[in-house]
Amino acid sequence: MSVPRRLTVMAGPTAVGKGTVSADIRQRYPEVWLSVSVTTRDPRPGEVDGVNYHFVGPDRFAEMITNGELLEWAVVHGRNSYGTPRAEVEKMLDQGIPALLEIDLQGARQVKATMPDAQFIFLAPPSWDELVRRLTGRGTESAEEQQRRLATATVELASQSEFDHVVINDDVHRATDEIAQLMGIEPRPVSGA
Questions:
Q1: What does 86-154 look like in DSSP terms, one character per residue?
Q2: C-alpha–C-alpha distance, residues 164 and 44, integer Å
Q3: The predicted structure's pLDDT at residue 108
Q4: H-helix or E-strand spanning residue 59
Q5: Which domains does the chain have, with CATH numbers?
Q6: CA 72 → CA 69, 128, 145, 190, distances in Å?
Q7: 10-residue block means of pLDDT along the chain (193 residues)?
Q8: In b/e form, how buried is each residue of 84-121, taking b as 16+ CB within 10 angstroms?
Q9: Which of 10, 98, 181, 189 is the most buried (most CB within 10 A)?
Q10: How far apart are CA 94 and CA 126, in angstroms?
Q11: Could you tell me the pTM of the whole model?
């Protein structure tokens, strides 16, 4: 196995569990630095500014684009903007710290164009039915928004071949361990397990 590249990009369809897997990595693999994205969407219940996302208004987001402060950015589901702060990523890479970006498909494509040596991981659901169950079960989007996200997910699922690896999120800890292993980190047991 070759030495993994320092920057790893994880993307996947809506409701696949990117945030849940990222939270598990943050807890169990503290040596991995996780980028905190910037977004114009409102926080969901329990989300904390600066931890889950940097929540900013549309004007500040546009300013960040103009100033070249974002490594990648996109309008997701035709509604809200998301992006990755460039300076934070470059600082971690310069220090040799394993860095993980949890971003959408559009963002992953932008990073691939500017940083083709990064490692790209597609987080996939075990099945379409499970993806639908997760999206509708979390109850954070209206029926209209759910339909919009499912239409986007169909396109996103078709992009798996653009990625270096596909990790099935059938079990959060197992998926997390597989991602850690792809990053060159020895998997470790779940505490209390």
A1: HHHHHHHHHTT--EEEE--HHHHHHHHHH-TTSEEEEEE-S-HHHHHHHHHHH--S-HHHHHHHHHHHH
A2: 31
A3: 93
A4: helix 58-66
A5: 7-182 (3.40.50.300)
A6: 9, 28, 24, 33
A7: 68 90 93 94 91 94 96 85 92 91 90 92 94 82 85 90 96 96 88 60
A8: bbbebbeebbeeeebbbbbbbbebbbbbbeebeebbbb
A9: 10
A10: 36
A11: 0.83
Q: How far is CA 4 from the centre of its chain?
A: 18
Single-letter amino acid code for the residue at 186: E
Place of tokens 């589901």: 77
The pLDDT of residue 5 is: 53
Nearest Cα to Cα of residue 39 among 57, 51, 23: 57
Residue 18 has a pLDDT of: 92
Half-sphere exposure of 117 (CA within 13 A, CB side): 5
**Euclidean distance between CA atoms 89 and 71, whole angstroms:** 8
The H-or-E segment that residue 164 falls in is none
Tokens found for residue 44: 């969901």
